[in-house]
Amino acid sequence: MKTLWKKYEQNKLAHGIFLLIYIGVTSLSLYTAQKSVAAFLLLLTSLLLLYFTKFTNLTKWLIAGFVLVFLLPFTASNGDAYQSYMEVSTLVGIYIAMALGLNIVVGMAGLLDLGFVAFFAVGAYTYGIFATAQASNFMPFGTFPLSGESFWLFIIIGGLVAALFGILLGIPVLRVKGDYLAIVTLGFGEIIRIIFNNLDRPINITNGAMGISSVTPPRLFGIDFLYPSQFYYIVLVLLFFTIFTVRRFEHSKIGRSWKAVRENEIAAQAMGVPLVRTKLMAFAIGATFSGMMGVVFAAKQAFVDPTSFTLLESITILVMVVLGGMGSVPGVILGAAVMTILNLQVLTEMTNWLNQLSLSGIISIPYALSPAKMQRFIFGALLILFALYRPKGLLPAKNRIFIEKDLQGVNRKAKLVTTQEQSENEKL
Amino acid sequence: MLNEIIQTIPQVLIDGLALGTVYAVIALGYTMVYGILELINFAHGEIFMTGAFIGTALLIFMTGTGWGAALPAIVMLIIVLIVTAFLTGFLGMGIERLAYRPLRNAPRLIPLITAIGISFLLQDIVRLIAELTKGNYIVTGPSLFTEQVLIKTSSISSIFNDASIKTSFIIVLVTAVIMMIALDIFVNRTRWGMAMRAVAQDRETASLMTVNVNKVISITFFVGSALGGATGVLFAVQYGTIDPYIGFILGLKAFTAAVIGGIGNIRGAMIGGLLLGVLEMFASANLTLLTGGIFGAEYKDVFAFAILIIVLLFKPEGLLGKPVTEKV
Q1: Shortest Cα distance from B302 to chain A (angstroms)?
Q2: Do A384 and B121 touch (CB under 8 A)?
Q3: Considering the entire predicted model, what is its pTM?
Q4: Staple A176 to which of A180, A326, A331, B279, CB 3.0 to 4.6 Å?
Q5: How many CB atoms lie within 10 A of CB A272?
Q6: Distance separating alpha carbons of residues A400 and A402, to the nearest angstrom
């Protein structure tokens, strides 16, 4: 059995065949059994299986692209649950991008940020204010709401504004670190929320606790984007962009500086890493992705209000990063997907199921115990369990290690070997 | 405008002191743990909240069984305070044992994350219990001391208005002061206090001097959490209505207070707490007036956090703290 497994592990063709069968079966079952959440989830799992295969990166990306762009929407499309599946997938994408942003700040640069959702809020409000008549309250020139075509521009503007806020947050907190930083960012998140909640006086900018409703939908070539299935593609494009940039950043000079700062600030500084710039970059870049997704979120919901940006949201994103593995891009993607699906699909499904059971009188579950209300409990438990038993998360971060001999060229080919990151345990 | 502000000052001071004592006692818990472990015990606000709920439950139970009629209210309060303090004290010890001790040598980010986890867990467990037993997680306890006392501040000078306080405020203030003095004596005069100070100075050397470090840390958590829980009861008595999410924001404010006073410094925490309470009350009473109606009382939390950031920026060691140089 073991030898058979080993053989399978070595054999790319076997991987391919298995994956093909798996994707085929799950997509077929999603196609035929439309209401099955399980089939939907299993199809998404194929991406995880894909990650573990031995194909080259390009092949992996091509297969993943095929599944996400074509197969998933197509197989889900001929049933009633289509829009709700797409809704979930869209939100998963949004959260993945945010978690990747936070991963830069927490996972790579080691700066614990507990107010991360503030940047999401900034992005959402940027679009929300200008895509409704709200802006005319304080901007006498120009006609508002802006047309749907401006959405594409606002994705960039939202990212930039969020980056600006990231730097604004960064400047005062540069002097504090560790636990203080956590508290200050938490306070910052609360400040942003309170301000958005009360900025309806003296000038009505955010419409206060009432929120901004009927945000103009995005428009491209005369088509309005109204349904989750359409937003799915926007999010997908942005998500590919995010993953691509984050990976690029990770292995660039700035990425290495982040990791150096995380491991030992003083040593990094002594080695010539500019501390201020490195930290500010982490905050700004992390915030950018969050702000961009905020714009998409505002357009998708067509409604923005302060209740979507509470501490619970910040913690949710932190749980995603911790669960997946701090500093590990694939891990964070997995963590974000698992948490979002758990939240949106599994918990709601379980609640519905329990409600049905109690309606038919089999068992009675008190309202207080319904799984949808157990979010905090689950998040708390996950944070503790993972911090205690798997501090590196589901898919731990890997660092490229270059073997000196190979670099000097025994066979003139630099070989890349990945091993587990060990530096984390080293403490001075 | 100035007249109006001066007129309300006695009331603002009294309300501010009431809030400030609550902050001060919670801040003590933060400070003690920080002083000894250099860890911000994020879950401390939740211990406070749990204390408030345990206390309220005990009060409801005691009035329900008729003890309330038999015992004078003050005796009942003392019993509740002591029982709650013990329960939350053990809760704090348990949290330390479960979530902090295994991680004592881990990178600093990790215990912070478990602390957030613990506070979320506690919030939801308390919500669950409250909702299961009472049907709603916002709980109002029996009102014990409700008589109003009028303080004739106008007789000092006619520019002040009269202030009024509830009798519960006096009891809260007295209890809090007793707790603070007791803590001060405990830390500075007893052997356990000496051991705590030794561990705070240098854990390894202390352990070489036959100090049982784990036990000392446990006791620190016990004392800090007991104080936090007892303050929770006082808070419930003073303000009446509680919910599982009060601990978070109050904990944050108390942390601010600890930072203002100089974290790790017990007297600093007291001063910081009182100062923050008074400042916040002043802000919530006068922000509308001062800014001509642009900012209202709803910005008082923003004000508190702004103080925190400013203090951290310009005097990170706090009012009474000593600047620390970093070990490399």
Answers
A1: 5
A2: yes
A3: 0.82
A4: A180
A5: 8
A6: 6
**How far, in Å, CA of A350 to CA of A340, rounded?**
15
ipTM of the complex: 0.82
The whole-angstrom separation of Cα B45 and Cα B118 is 11
Q: Output A148 or A350, whichever has higher pLDDT.
A: A350
Chain B residues with beta carbon closer than 8 angstroms to that of A374 = 124
Q: Write out chain A residues lying below 8 Å of B294, CB-based.
A: 201-202
**Cβ–Cβ < 8 Å for A415, A350:** no
pLDDT in tens, A190-214: 888 888 887 777 677 777 777 777 7
Output the pLDDT for position B50.
Answer: 92
- Name every chain A residue with its beta carbon within 8 A of the beta carbon of B112: 112, 178-179, 182
For chain B, the first-to-last Cα distance in angstroms comes to 53
First-to-last CA distance in chain A? 46
pLDDT tens column, A364-420 = 666 666 776 777 788 888 888 888 888 777 777 776 666 776 666 655 444 444 444
CA distances from A152 to A52, A147, A295, A384, B296 (A): 35, 11, 9, 40, 37
pLDDT at A279: 86
Q: Contact at 8 Å (CB) between A311 and A190?
A: yes
- Portion of chain A with pLDDT greater than 70, in percent: 82
- For every residue of chain B, which 3-state class applies, written as one string? CHHHHHHHHHHHHHHHHHHHHHHHHHHHHHHHHHHHHCCCCCCHHHHHHHHHHHHHHHHHHHHHCCHHHHCCHHHHHHHHHHHHHHHHHHHHHHHHHHHHHHHCCCCCHHHHHHHHHHHHHHHHHHHHHHHHHHCCCCEECCCCCCCEEEECHHHCCCCCCCEEEEHHHHHHHHHHHHHHHHHHHHHHHCHHHHHHHHHHHCHHHHHHCCCCHHHHHHHHHHHHHHHHHHHHHHHHHHHCEECCCHHHHHHHHHHHHHHHHCCCCHHHHHHHHHHHHHHHHHHHHHHHHHCCCCCCHHHHHHHHHHHHHHHHHHCCCCCCCCCCCCCC
As a whole-number percent, the residues of chain A with pLDDT over 90 amount to 0
Among B40, B114, B127, select the one facing A384 at the smallest CB separation. Answer: B114
Judge: A387–B132 Cβ closer than 8 Å, yes or no: no
Our CA angle for B271, B272, B277, nearest 5°, is: 100
Which of the four pLDDT bands, split at 50, 70 and 90, describes residue A177? Answer: low
CA A156/CA A289 separation, integer angstroms? 10
Q: What is the mean pLDDT of residues B185-197?
A: 85
Residues of A in contact with B97 (CB under 8 A): none
